[in-house]
Amino acid sequence: MLKKCIFCAALCTLFFFTSCLDTEEKIVLHKNNSGTYTVSIDMSKVLVMMEQFGQGANKEPDKKDSTIYFKHYADTSTALTATEKELIRDGSLHMLVDEEAKVLKVVFSLPFSNVNRLPELRSGYMAILDKMELSKKIDPNGKDPSQQAVKSDIASNQSFLSPSSSDAYIFAAAPGKISNRLSPEKTGTPEGDSTMQMLQQMSAFMGAPSYTITLVLPKKIKKYNGTNPVLSKNKKTISFSSTLNELLSAPSAAEFNVEY
After folding, report:
1. Which helix (H) or strand (E) holds 231?
2. Over the stretch 96-141, which tens digit does the pLDDT of each residue have?
3. Are 252 and 210 within 8 A, CB to CB?
4. Residue 23 burial (CB < 10 Å; 0-12/13-18/19+)?
């Protein structure tokens, strides 16, 4: 089942199912400027589509709640640098699967020691996970063809999970301020390649994935701007949201600026 969980997490990189994803990034900051960066991916619609295509019709539905901690894999990896090990070692991957209830959710949880490290962590965690080769370590004999098919796609397709984390944007984080803005050198879509164009075409009949970023801050927010903002009553939590179609038609929809 653990191998299947890894495969399902990687499934989010496949073209056909990407339109079924809803993704939330969440940044929780503490008074000492440490915090946790999480990426929650709701792939429940994938199970609905698989049922419609007759997948798994003749087997018992799976139900599993699993967590994979990165510490052991990071500490024993010969492919990671010391900096990469430090960034990823305290992180984890949580998978909730309930095929009968049509629930499939993945959460990457990545603590950081200082907010200044957040941009590096946000832009690089998928590449680090890819270098660790989790699928290969869990399935050392390579007998699971599904994992072999998807394992190399994770790092190269991080923009599926969050287009705003692509190199079309400049993400900055420091004590008192967090922002995401379009790079002056990037004037097109977040990912103006065939991959994103295919997603746009597919979303026309499968529904566009949604993206949300939530900031939970140690102090009240003084000033903010961004798309579809939702501010909490205590003014310490704020969310911005958009869809893939909105990002492709207006990349500035992923821009935001928060001062606290």
Report:
1. strand 230-231
2. 888 778 888 889 999 999 999 999 999 999 889 888 887 666 555 5
3. no
4. buried
Whole-prediction pTM value? 0.78
Cα-based distances in Å from 193 to 101, 171, 190, 224? 36, 21, 9, 31
State the DSSP code for 219. S
Asked whether 215 and 178 are in contact (CB, 8 A), the reply is yes
Q: Which residues of the chain have pLDDT under 50?
A: 1-19, 143-156, 190-191, 193, 205
Helix-strand-coil split of the chain, %, nearest 5: 40, 30, 30
Distance of alpha carbon 156 from alpha carbon 87, whole angstroms: 19
Per-residue pLDDT at 55 = 57
Reference 69, options 91, 40, 88, 87; nearest CA is 91
Give CA angle at 253 (247, 255), nearest 5°: 125
